[in-house]
């Protein structure tokens, strides 16, 4: 009896599948080796690799200087300065609208034309542009637009005075003066305390605050005492160089913050949102502060 061996002849289709499998496995192995080499270079680079990076740092390691926009918003000038920075090996910058620039043009058409030209030229040179979200500083006022027509959006701060008095007699403190220029004017007394005049902090509530908050009156026991009065002030930027930007806002209220985002960040997002995380790596938010003196 003859036994016949049955088997399949390799078809062209099977050969192609096998070839593709070999290629895929080879690519996977090569990628794994490449990834391992990249990890080694990142975690434990050789001395020569470190020196080469110092000699010729990659473009992503470029410094990103504050770029003062303190003059006319001329798109051609912006393009020229982007090229000048790139020629010197500076492939990133942060335009900073500030003193010298006409504040009335901030976030208006001349500003956006200058920013558009900047981003276009930066794209040509392979540069990135970091955004600064204010005219001058601190961030929050959108060059005075947040508080324009909204005085309630200015910050309020807590100030204090300490007065020594001798009893027994009634003692009155009226409309104390703010201790710092950032606290533009007195608004109302909110609390008062009394204690011994020995340098310790008065902790015992004292006196009666008049309904308008303009003064507080109370009895002083026999001997020398110290009265501590806390009062609310209206805050505003006192700088004569600020050209009326009045950037201080009440950071503890959601309304001015929401208005600031609408006027600033959302305007950038509407125009250049597709560049976020790419040519525009980040937005710089500067010096948020309550601008109030601390007791």
Concise structural overview:
With 295 residues, the protein is of the alpha/beta class. It contains six helices and ten strands; from the N terminus they run H-H-E-H-E-H-E-E-E-E-E-E-E-H-H-E. Among the domains are: 59-144 and 254-284; 155-235.
Secondary structure elements and pairings:
Elements (H helix, E strand, L loop, with lengths): L11 H32 L3 H9 L10 E4 L5 H13 L4 E6 L11 H17 L2 E2 L1 E2 L23 E19 L8 E14 L7 E2 L2 E2 L5 E21 L18 H10 L1 H8 L10 E2 L11
Parallel strand pairs: 1-2, 2-3, 4-10
Antiparallel strand pairs: 5-9, 6-7, 6-9, 8-9
Give an account of the 3D structure.
The protein is an alpha/beta fold and 295 residues long. Among the domains are: 59-144 and 254-284; 155-235. 30% of the residues lie in helices and 25% in strands. The chain has six helices and ten strands. The protein has helices spanning 12-43, 47-55, 75-87, 109-125, 254-263, 265-272, and strands at residues 66-69, 92-97, 128-129, 131-132, 156-174, 183-196, 204-205, 208-209, 215-235, 283-284. The strands form three sheets. Strands 5, 6, 7, 8 and 9 form a five-stranded antiparallel beta sheet that branches. Strands 1-2-3 form a three-stranded parallel beta sheet, with helices on one face. A hairpin with a 5-residue loop joins β8 and β9. α3 runs parallel beside α4. The relative contact order is 0.14. The model has no long low-confidence stretch (mean pLDDT 87).
């Amino acid at each position: 009896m003859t036994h016949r061996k049955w088997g399949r002849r390799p078809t062209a289709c099977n050969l192609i599948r096998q070839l593709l499998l070999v290629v895929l496995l080879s690519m996977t192995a090569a990628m794994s080796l490449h990834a391992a080499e990249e990890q080694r270079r990142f975690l434990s680079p050789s001395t020569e690799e470190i020196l080469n990076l110092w000699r010729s740092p990659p473009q992503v390691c470029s410094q990103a200087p504050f770029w003062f926009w303190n003059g006319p918003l001329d798109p051609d000038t912006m393009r020229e300065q982007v090229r000048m920075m790139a020629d010197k090996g500076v492939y990133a910058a942060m335009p900073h609208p500030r003193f010298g620039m006409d504040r009335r043009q901030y976030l208006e058409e001349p500003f956006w034309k200058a920013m558009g030209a900047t981003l276009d030229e930066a794209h040509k040179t392979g540069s990135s542009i970091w955004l600064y979200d204010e005219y001058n500083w601190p961030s929050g006022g959108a060059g005075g637009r947040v508080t324009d027509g909204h005085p309630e959006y200015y910050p309020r701060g807590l100030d204090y005075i300490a007065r020594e008095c001798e009893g027994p007699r009634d003692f009155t403190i009226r409309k104390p003066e703010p201790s710092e220029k950032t606290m533009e004017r007195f608004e109302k007394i909110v609390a008062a305390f009394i204690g011994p005049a020995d340098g310790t902090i008065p902790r015992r509530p004292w006196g009666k605050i008049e309904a308008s908050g303009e003064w507080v009156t109370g009895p002083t026991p026999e001997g020398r005492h110290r009265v501590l009065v806390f009062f609310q002030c209206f805050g505003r930027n006192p700088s004569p160089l600020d050209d009326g930007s009045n950037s201080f806002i009440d950071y503890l209220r959601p309304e001015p913050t929401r208005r600031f985002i609408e006027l600033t960040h959302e305007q950038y997002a509407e125009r250049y949102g597709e560049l976020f995380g790419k040519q525009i790596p980040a937005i710089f938010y500067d010096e948020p502060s309550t601008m109030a003196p601390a007791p």
